[in-house]
Specification:
Largest sheet: 2 strands, antiparallel
Number of strands: 2
Shape: globular
Distance between the termini: 12 Å
Structural class: mainly alpha
Number of helices: 5
Strand content: 5-15%
Length: 111
């Protein structure tokens, strides 16, 4: 599975925020003119989705993520989001994060 380290991501977000950039240029998504707001939102969303991956089964997590993409991403950008951040990879990476910390047991299909 993809390697997602929530703690390392949060530390990276803090480093970027502490550098006080005037804008961010994101691969696949263009320029962000309000970095503090964007970085704060990313950190919050990462914590929220990590918590959902811990609490939900695969089907429920993927359904929630698809609902989020459908409800908060502009219609023309949805497929680009799914390609850049495949929902299944998000699930696998966040589950692995919790498994490596001993919070969740490893799923049999990947054991």
């Amino acid at each position: 599975p993809p390697d997602i380290d929530v703690d390392a991501w949060q530390a990276s977000l803090r480093l970027v925020r502490d550098a006080s950039p005037a804008r961010l240029r994101l691969a696949h998504f263009g320029t962000v003119e309000d970095p503090p707001s964007h970085l704060g939102r990313i950190g919050e969303e990462l914590r929220r989705w990590a918590g959902l991956a811990r609490a939900l089964d695969r089907a429920s997590f993927l359904s929630a993520l698809e609902s989020e993409i459908g409800g908060s991403v502009a219609e023309g950008d949805r497929e680009r989001v799914r390609l850049a951040v495949p929902p299944e990879h998000v699930w696998l990476g966040l589950r692995r994060y919790w498994e490596l910390r001993g919070v969740l047991e490893r799923e049999e299909s990947r054991a």
